[in-house]
C-alpha cells in the first residue's frame, strides 16, 4: 500500500510542472507550393494528442501544455509529410507552412467516372449557380439546367431528371449530405414540376449519373448533391418583380454569423390572361413560399447551418380528355415544410465530423374530377460522417451512419359527395452504414473503394452494395477512369401503399470515362452499361390488388455521353455541347413485356451558348435542345409501346441587362422558350373503352401547357458596401 501511495505521489509530482506551465498556442496556415490554401491537413505534436486540422482556408490553431523542444508533424493525403522543431515556452507560436505534393499526387488524378462536377476547381467544373440562373430555357430551375447535360432525357410533361434510361424517382437529391424526400413541388400529370430550392442557396452541385460514391444510396440511376453556402458574403437586400411573382430577401452578415430571410408570392393569373394557353386554367397557379437560413462559424473550422423553407400552392386545370365528356378537371393543393440542420467540425488527429438532421412534411391534395386523393408524407433523416483526410500519405478514410424514419398516409375518396373513403399507410425505418477510402496505388493510378449496407424494417430485408472506381492519369491534363457499383432502392411510396412486402430494386453500373480539361476547355466522354433486377411489377388492369405485385422486373440501359465545354476560344463567349446515346429496354410496373420506356429517347442533344456584350452590359443566352422520338403505347395497334412520337425540339433565348435603378445594382432579365413555336407532343391519352362506332380508342395529345413561356423580371440588389459593377460580366 505504501508503494502504491509513493508511486501516486511521484506521478502527481511529475505532473505539477506541466500544470503550472501556461499553455502554448500554436496557430498558422498551411499552403501548397503555388500558395493555395490546404484544408484538412493534420497538424499535431509528435507523441501527444495535441493537434488540429486546417480549415477551408488552410488555417489551424490549438493549445498544448507540453513544454520544451517538440516536433510538429504535418500530414495530408497526396502531400509529402513534414516535421519541424518547435519550442514550447508559453509564448504563442505563429507559423506559415508549405507542403509539397507527392509526384503525380492523388489531387491531380481525380476519379470522374459517372460525375459531372460543379464548383470544384480540382474537377471538371460543368455548372455552377450562375450557369443555372443564366441558362436559357431553365428559368433558374436546377433540374432544367442539368437537363442540358449528357445522360439526361428531357421529358417535358414531367420536368424532372431522367438519367440514362431511369425513371425520375431513380435520381435522388441530397442537400448537405441529407436525403431530400420531396425535392420537386407538387404537380399533376402533363404539368412539369420545378425544384423547390433556389439556385442561390448552393455554392456547388455534383451531378452523378452513375457509379457514384458509397456515401449515397437509394438511387438506381443518379445522385444530385447540393452543397449550400456557408456564411453569406455580405449584408444586402434584394427585391424581385417579374411577370409571374414578386419577392424580397434580406441578408445580414456579422463576423461569424449570417442570417437570410426570403419570401415570394406567385400568381400566374395576369400572365395567363395575356398569353395563349393550350389548357383551360380554371384557377391559375398561385402560391407563396419563404425561407430562413442561419450560418454560424464555430471555432476555426466548425460550421453550424440551419435552413428552413415552407411553401404552399394551388391550381385548377382543365385538360382535354378522350372520354365522352371531352374534358377533365384536376385541382391540386400542396403544402410543404422542410428543415435541414448540419454541423461540421475538425476533431483530433486529422479526423473531422459532419452530422445533420432533416425534417420534412408534404401534404398533397389531388382532386381529379369527383375523386379525392390526399397523400401526407412525414420524414426525419439523420446522418453522421467521420472523415480523416490524412490517415495516411496515400489514402484517407470515411465512415458513416444514416437513418430514415418515414410515415406515409393516403386517403382515397371515390366520390366527393359520398362519405365513403379508404385509407392506407406505411411506416418505414431504414438504417444504413458506409465506409469508403480514396487511395493512390502508383504515381499515376488512384482509386476509390467503399461499401454501403442498408436495412429496411418495412421490407424486412438488408442489402450490401460494393463500389469501386479507378483513375489513371494519361497526360498532364487528361485521365481515364472507370467505376463499378451495385445500387439498391426501396420501391416508390405509391407501390408500398398497396403492397409493403416487396424487395429492394437493384441496379449495377459499369462506367468508363475519358476526360481532358485544360485552359478553360473540357472534353468528357463516358460509356456506360447498367442492368436492372427485382423491379416491381403489377397488373395494370387492377393496380390496387396487392396479390398481383412482385419483383420480377428486369431491364438494361447502355450508351455513350459526350460533353464539350469551351470558355476560352472566343472572348466573352462560353458554350457547351452535350450528346447522349441511349439504348434501353425494361419490363417493370404494368409492362406486359420488355419494351423501351416511354420516357427514354435514343438521341439527346443540347447546345448552350452565352455571350457577354460589354457595350450593352448585357449577357445574351441561347439553348437548343433536341430529343429523338420517344415511344408510347397505342391500344389501336398490335404490340406494346409501339407508337412513335415526333422528335422534341426547343430553342430558348434570354438576355440579362445590367444597369442601375434608383442607384442600386439591377438586373433586367428577359427569357422566352420555344421561340420557333415548335408543336411538341409528349404523348397521348387514350379512352378507357373503344368507340362503339369505329372500335378504335379515341385519343388526345399531351402537349405543353402553353405554346411558349415568356418571362420578364427585374432584380434589384441593395448593397452599400459592394454596390456591384454593371460593366463586369456576372460571375
From TrEMBL:
Membrane topology category: Multi-pass membrane protein
InterPro entries per the UniProt record, alphabetical: Beta-barrel_TonB, Beta-barrel_TonB_sf, CarboxyPept-like_regulatory, Plug_dom, TonB-dep_rcpt-like
Domain TonB-dependent receptor plug as annotated: residue spans: 138-223
Residue ranges occupied by any TonB-dependent receptor-like beta-barrel domain in the UniProt entry: 325-657
Family: Belongs to the TonB-dependent receptor family.
Keyword RNA-binding belongs to the record: no
Keywords: Cell outer membrane, Membrane, Receptor, Signal, TonB box, Transmembrane, Transmembrane beta strand, Transport
Subcellular location: Cell outer membrane
Keyword Metal-binding among UniProt keywords: no
Domain of life: Bacteria
Species whose genome carries this gene: Hymenobacter yonginensis
Protein name in the entry: TonB-dependent receptor
Signal peptide positions on this chain: 1-20
Amino acid at each position: 500500500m505504501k508503494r502504491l501511495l509513493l508511486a501516486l505521489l511521484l506521478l502527481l509530482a511529475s505532473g505539477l510542472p506541466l500544470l503550472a506551465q501556461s499553455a502554448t498556442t500554436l496557430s498558422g496556415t498551411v499552403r501548397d507550393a503555388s500558395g493555395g490554401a490546404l484544408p484538412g491537413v493534420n497538424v499535431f505534436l509528435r507523441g501527444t494528442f495535441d493537434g488540429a486540422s486546417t480549415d477551408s482556408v488552410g488555417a489551424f490553431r490549438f493549445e498544448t501544455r507540453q513544454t520544451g523542444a517538440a516536433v510538429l508533424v504535418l500530414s495530408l493525403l497526396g502531400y509529402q509529410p513534414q516535421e519541424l522543431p518547435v519550442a514550447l515556452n508559453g509564448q504563442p507560436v505563429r507559423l506559415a507552412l508549405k507542403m509539397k505534393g507527392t509526384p503525380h499526387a492523388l489531387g491531380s488524378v481525380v476519379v470522374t467516372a459517372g460525375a459531372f462536377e460543379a464548383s470544384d476547381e480540382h474537377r471538371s467544373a460543368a455548372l455552377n449557380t450562375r450557369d443555372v440562373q443564366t441558362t436559357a430555357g431553365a428559368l433558374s430551375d436546377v433540374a432544367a439546367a442539368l437537363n442540358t447535360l449528357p445522360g439526361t432525357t428531357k421529358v417535358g410533361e414531367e420536368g424532372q431528371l431522367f438519367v440514362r434510361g431511369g425513371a425520375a424517382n431513380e435520381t435522388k437529391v441530397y442537400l448537405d449530405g441529407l436525403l431530400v424526400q420531396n425535392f420537386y413541388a407538387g404537380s399533376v400529370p402533363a404539368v412539369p414540376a420545378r425544384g423547390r430550392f433556389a439556385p442561390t442557396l448552393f455554392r456547388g452541385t455534383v451531378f452523378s449519373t452513375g457509379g457514384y460514391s458509397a456515401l449515397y444510396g437509394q438511387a438506381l440511376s443518379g445522385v444530385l448533391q447540393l452543397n449550400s453556402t456557408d456564411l453569406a458574403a455580405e449584408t444586402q437586400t434584394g427585391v424581385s418583380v417579374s411577370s409571374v411573382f414578386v419577392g424580397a430577401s434580406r441578408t445580414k452578415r456579422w463576423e461569424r454569423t449570417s442570417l437570410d430571410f426570403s419570401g415570394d408570392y406567385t400568381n400566374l393569373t395576369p400572365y395567363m390572361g395575356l398569353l395563349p394557353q393550350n389548357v383551360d386554367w380554371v384557377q391559375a397557379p398561385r402560391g407563396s413560399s419563404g425561407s430562413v437560413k442561419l450560418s454560424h462559424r464555430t471555432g476555426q473550422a466548425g460550421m453550424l447551418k440551419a435552413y428552413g423553407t415552407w411553401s404552399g400552392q394551388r391550381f385548377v386545370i382543365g385538360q382535354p380528355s378522350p372520354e365522352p365528356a371531352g374534358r377533365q378537371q384536376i385541382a391540386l393543393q400542396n403544402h410543404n415544410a422542410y428543415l435541414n440542420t448540419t454541423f461540421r467540425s475538425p476533431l483530433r488527429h486529422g479526423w473531422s465530423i459532419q452530422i445533420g438532421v432533416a425534417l420534412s412534411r408534404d401534404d398533397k391534395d389531388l382532386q381529379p374530377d369527383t375523386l379525392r386523393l390526399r397523400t401526407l408524407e412525414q420524414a426525419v433523416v439523420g446522418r453522421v460522417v467521420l472523415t480523416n483526410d490524412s490517415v495516411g500519405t496515400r489514402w484517407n478514410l470515411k465512415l458513416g451512419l444514416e437513418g430514415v424514419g418515414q410515415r406515409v398516409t393516403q386517403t382515397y375518396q371515390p366520390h366527393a359527395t359520398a362519405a365513403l373513403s379508404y385509407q392506407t399507410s406505411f411506416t418505414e425505418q431504414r438504417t444504413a452504414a458506409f465506409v469508403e477510402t480514396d487511395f493512390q496505388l502508383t504515381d499515376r493510378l488512384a482509386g476509390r473503394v467503399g461499401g454501403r449496407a442498408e436495412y429496411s424494417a418495412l421490407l424486412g430485408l438488408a442489402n450490401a452494395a460494393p463500389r469501386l472506381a479507378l483513375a489513371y492519369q494519361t497526360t498532364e491534363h487528361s485521365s481515364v477512369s472507370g467505376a463499378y457499383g451495385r445500387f439498391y432502392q426501396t420501391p416508390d411510396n405509391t407501390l408500398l401503399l398497396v403492397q409493403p412486402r416487396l424487395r429492394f430494386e437493384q441496379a449495377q453500373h459499369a462506367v468508363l470515362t475519358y476526360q481532358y480539361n485544360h485552359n478553360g476547355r473540357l472534353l468528357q466522354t463516358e460509356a456506360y452499361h447498367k442492368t436492372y433486377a427485382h423491379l416491381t411489377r403489377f397488373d395494370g388492369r387492377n393496380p390496387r390488388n396487392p396479390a398481383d405485385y412482385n419483383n420480377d422486373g428486369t431491364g438494361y440501359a447502355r450508351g455513350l455521353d459526350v460533353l464539350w465545354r469551351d470558355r476560352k476560344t472566343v472572348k466573352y463567349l462560353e458554350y457547351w455541347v452535350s450528346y447522349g446515346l441511349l439504348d434501353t429496354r425494361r419490363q417493370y410496373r404494368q409492362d406486359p413485356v420488355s419494351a423501351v420506356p416511354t420516357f427514354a429517347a435514343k438521341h439527346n442533344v443540347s447546345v448552350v451558348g452565352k455571350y457577354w456584350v460589354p457595350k450593352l452590359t448585357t449577357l445574351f443566352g441561347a439553348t437548343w435542345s433536341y430529343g429523338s422520338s420517344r415511344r408510347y403505347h397505342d391500344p389501336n395497334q398490335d404490340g406494346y409501346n409501339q407508337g412513335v412520337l415526333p422528335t422534341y425540339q426547343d430553342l430558348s433565348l434570354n438576355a440579362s441587362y445590367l444597369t442601375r435603378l434608383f442607384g442600386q445594382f439591377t438586373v433586367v432579365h428577359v427569357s422566352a422558350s420555344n421561340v420557333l413555336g415548335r408543336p411538341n407532343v409528349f404523348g397521348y391519352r387514350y379512352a378507357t373503352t373503344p368507340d362503339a362506332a369505329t372500335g378504335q380508342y379515341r385519343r388526345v395529345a399531351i402537349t405543353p401547357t402553353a405554346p411558349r413561356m415568356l418571362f420578364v423580371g427585374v432584380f434589384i440588389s441593395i448593397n452599400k458596401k459592394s454596390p456591384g459593377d454593371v460593366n463586369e460580366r456576372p460571375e
